[in-house]
Fold this sequence. Notes:
By secondary structure, the chain is of the alpha/beta class. It contains two helices and twelve strands, in the order αββββββββββββα. It is globular, with a radius of gyration of 26 Å.
Amino acid sequence: MLQSSENSFNQKAGSPAANPNAYNPVKTVTAPIDQATIGRTLVIKGEISGSEALYIDGRVEGKITMPESRVTIGRNGKVDASIQAREVVIMGKVNGNIECSDRVDIRAEGSVTGDISTVRISVEDGAGLKGGIQVRSEGKGNQQQKSAEAPKAMAAAGSA
């Protein structure tokens, strides 16, 4: 009995309409992920700005301004530029200052020579980092500091 049901399943697999696991491409209304790529052989000198994600596997010299996007420097990427972005992932080499509104991620094979200013940072074992790091707090950090100072002031006033 088991063999006969397998045969009937294989017969159904022959027709694409009968197979529920058949590959049917999904039609999307919007593009999946907007990402520009600078390929391995490309060299760009100047300013790069935009609002979509950027993947750099080539060489860039100048300034990169992507305040609402992610900038990824691939394993073959070499960047001699200042970078301003929401998120920066480094797997290649960066010479220049980095300013992020969210997160910097330096992977094991990546290296940075320059100052970093960000809210969150991650540096894997084996990554290179030469420069200063400023980790800014978001709005919550300032409010917690002010609320911690208020009880101290009240305690000082109460003991006087």
